[in-house]
# Entry
Amino acid sequence: MIAERSDHEALGGLEYYVLIGDHVFTPVELRHAYYSSAVVFNTSRDSLTLRWDGPNRLIVNCTYSTVDKDQINVQRRQVGNNSIAYENIALK
# Structure
C-alpha cells in the first residue's frame, strides 16, 4: 500500500511510504509501520503507483516524473520472498 503522511509539527511537508503487509493497516498500525521494516520505499515525491508483476515481484513507479537519489529516504530491493523493482525512480 501507499501511505501519505504529513508532518504537521515540523512543517516538513508530505512523505509517501510504500508498505507491504497482509492486510490494510489501521491508523495505529500505520504509525508503527512508519518506523519498522515494513517500509519498502519512502520519498517526498508524490505520484507513486504500485503493481504486482507475478506473485512475488512488486513494481513501484513514479508516474508524474522521476525520483532522484536525493529524494529517497528508504529504498529496499527485497522484502522476504518479494523482490522490489523501480520505474522512473533512481536506485540509491
